[in-house]
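$ run holo --ligand "zinc ion" --emit tokens
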Amino acid sequence: MIGENVKGNCRSCGSSQLKSVLALGNTPLADALVKKEDVDGPEATYPLDVAFCTECALMQIMETVPPEELFCQDYPYFSSVSDTVVGNAKDNTEHLIKTRNLDENSFVIELASNDGYLLQNYVKAGIPVLGIDPADTVVKVALEKGVPTMERFFSLELAKELAAEGKQADVIHGNNVLAHVADLTGFVDGIAVALKPDGVAAIEVPYLRDLIERNEFDTIYHEHLCYFSVTSLTNLFRAHGLYLNDLKRLSIHGGSMRLFIEKKDAPTEYIKQLLAEEKELGIDKFEYYENFGQNVEKLMAGLRDLLGGLKADGKRIAAYGAAAKGATMLNCSGIGTETLDYVVDRNVHKQGKTMPGVHVPIEAPEKLLEDMPDYVLLLAWNFKDEVMKQQAEFIEKGGKFVVPVPEPQVV
Ligand SMILES: [Zn+2]
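-- output --
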């Protein structure tokens, strides 16, 4: 029940003052794609319940699925598959090389460095780097690209090992990893240890305000333990001797922030303004979160009605994007093979498998043009412009897309 007290302790401040925001029920792991021969077998599910800490304003899910189960599967997510992600990384690194005067004497670390899509920009500029990532598949690709990468989970312990070897960083990158770590406080302590006194950590996280305002509930899944506001981030970093001094808002992943964190307390006017805006919105009060659950229920029902209506009219429907958010959208909304013929995805490692829980088969994007379904549910709505451009011919031939958030609509 929304508003009820939730058992447990806050991942950031340790408080037990947690209130329920949304209960999405038991769902399979959003990235645990199922092989076609295994669809009749057992599938693990875990509770997906969202809570809000009234002490430090952190929204979070309560269940911690062991990281070995979440991140070391043989489905790899290669950042380089997305043009948007690669372009974003290039802008990011160019800016830092210039403003921080980085050269061959500098040192850059990336946490969750994936296939080296970001660090390769530094390698090309002759700046020493170290990538850290626990997934062997992506580490292999990074090493082949010439990006030095360590197959490990980042932790306080690893930061201490690196510091003991004199390997503190001028810049630490960490894109879409802070929200994923089970030991949040240890991870932030690790950043403090791995960073030089005048270094900067450039960390990208989705912005809670965008999630709530645009009903992006499908970005909630077991990998995403925390959902950050500027307020909750400020509280988190301060408790570990780090300061959120600046940030840049990004449109990537449905609304993200690139945080700039340093060891001196010197917030820009922009940070002060965002904190004031959040206070005005009441982001530190439970009331802000109260309607969110109802809005999500409304969105899911609306999507079922829309697709059900199309189906009743004899239309054929496919979907685009076999990513985690698609799995949340389909499993929580109860949309499966009765509605969707297949899902397409550019990642060849996903093709031939099926979506977790609902078991909709995954095909290559070329299938859309060959098969010409009437509608395509855009599960990867965060890459809408990129997908629409890719699928220009499909659209020209009369194919239509259904975008599910902030409210279901045909485009
Ligand atoms: Zn807290």
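-- notes --
The radius of gyration is 21 Å.
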